[in-house]
Structures are given as C-alpha cells and as structure tokens.
Amino acid sequence: MMAEKPVKFVIFLSLILSLVAFWDHQFTSYLKEFVVLIHEICHATAALFSGGVVKGITLHGNEGGETIAVPASFRGSFILVVSAGYIGSSLVGAFLLRLGFQGRHARQTMILFGLFLISVSVLYSKLGDLAYFTGIFWGVGILVLGMLGETSSILSLVFLGTSISLYSLYDLSDFADRLTETDAGILAFWMAGLGPEDLQNEEIPTVVLILGYLIATLWSLLSIGIIFMSLRSSLSHEEHHDHQETVEQFERFPGELSPEAKLWLEKRGVDPESGIVLPPNFFLEPPSKDNPS
C-alpha cells in the first residue's frame, strides 16, 4: 500500500501531467481506444443486466465506438443502457483508482479485469476487428501484470484508473462540439419521441437541443462527482488504515498495571489486558465496592 497521502497525490498528478503531455502520442492513441472500449462495454453490461441482448461491440478507430444492443422491454431500460457509457466509464476509472491507492486485492482485481476484457472481446466483437484486437491486447497485458505481483498490480491499477478517469472527463467535451452525435443526443431524440431517421436531419429540433444539454449537464456533474469523491476517499483512506494497523500491532502492556492505570485506560476505550483500542461504550461502569457485580 502507498504509505503517505502526499505520495499518492504526487503519483496521481504526475500521471495526469504525463498523459496530457503525450496526449497526441501514438501510445496514447492505443490507450484512448482502450477507454472507448470500456465505454462500449459499459453500454453492453447495462443492456445485459437489464435483461436485454448484446449483438456486438465495434470500434471505429477515430476514438468512436458502437454497441449494438436490444434493451429489455421496460421503458427505463433504454435510458439505463444509453446512460451507462459515460457514467459507467467514470465508475470504472474511479473504482480502479481507489483499489490501486488502497493496495488491497490488487492482483485479484487485475487478473479478473483481464479475464473479463478477454471474455467480452471474444463473445461480442468480431475476430480481427479493432474492438477484438484492443480487448485481447489489453486483457492479456493486464492479466500478465496481475500475475507479476502485488506491486506491479497496484501501480497498474492507479495508472488505469487515472487514465480512464481522465479520458472520461475529456470525453465530456463532445457534448459541446457535437451534441447530437453523442449518447446524450441519442437519448434526447428518443425522449422527444423522434426515431433514428430524424438523426439525419440537418435542422435539429429545439426540444432535442434543450433535452440534450440537460442530459449532458447531468451526466457531466455525475461523472465529475464520482471521480472527485473516489479520489478524495482514496487520498484520505490512509488515516483510517494507519489507525487500524496501529490497533492490530498494539502489543500487550509490559508488566503489571495498577488498578488506577487500568481504570484510566478503560475510560479511554483501551483494553488494559491486550492494549487494543475498543469501540466507545464497550466498557460498562466499573462496579462499586459497596455493590459488586
């Protein structure tokens, strides 16, 4: 586990600055395609969990992708599936980042994540397509890193969580540039009662624009909030963990304690026999000499 809060913050900030500096580098383009795949997998996962059917996942090579799914029959399932792309990516990034900073179950998480990516790629993308290649490549890489050890897994989780979170926030800029081509625009057309053929019209109805920007704003606030709360929780997790370690490593007091010392410790929630800090109100009022229990 990363021992100090400043270390965590420096690592996170360094990764952010590095990714921004190499944003147009070829390696970063592979990373972007991976995050787009995560976005599409979130759509597919929402469809499956809501009782729908996933027919395929594709990547277009221009930081765009497509999930072909048939949502369940209940009306809210379409809203859930369409919303899952942006919100789901933020949740995945925040989850991986938090696990990486906590340093718990890092290897297991990496191995399961790698197997999950490989399975989804085999099941829902065509052999030889970009989505298939991206899922297999990253899935195998994540699987190998998970098998190398705990340290490599922790660093990889922090890197993946930071990358997905950063790109998820960057992806929100699509709402300002090409709203109607995003998931928010698609959902706005659907909520306005318009069909897929209406997406091709050059003139965008005002109601679609209003709904689209409202949806985009809501998704943006949720995504930013999810990542912020996860980062805040990850950076502040150390204090609680250090307290637990102190409790677990507290050794029995040497020698014999006087009755006064035992009473003093009990009032402060410390077991005088083991030295363990106990929950408040654990000790009952000590019995009086006149009325022993």
Automatic annotation (TrEMBL):
<keyword id="KW-0812">Transmembrane</keyword>
<feature type="transmembrane region" description="Helical">
    <location>
        <begin position="6"/>
        <end position="23"/>
    </location>
</feature>
<keyword id="KW-0472">Membrane</keyword>
<feature type="region of interest" description="Disordered">
    <location>
        <begin position="272"/>
        <end position="293"/>
    </location>
</feature>
<keyword id="KW-1133">Transmembrane helix</keyword>
<dbReference type="InterPro" id="IPR049500">
    <property type="entry name" value="Peptidase_M50B-like"/>
</dbReference>
<dbReference type="Pfam" id="PF13398">
    <property type="entry name" value="Peptidase_M50B"/>
</dbReference>
<feature type="transmembrane region" description="Helical">
    <location>
        <begin position="109"/>
        <end position="124"/>
    </location>
</feature>
<protein>
    <submittedName>
        <fullName>M50 family peptidase</fullName>
    </submittedName>
</protein>
<feature type="transmembrane region" description="Helical">
    <location>
        <begin position="207"/>
        <end position="231"/>
    </location>
</feature>
<feature type="transmembrane region" description="Helical">
    <location>
        <begin position="77"/>
        <end position="97"/>
    </location>
</feature>
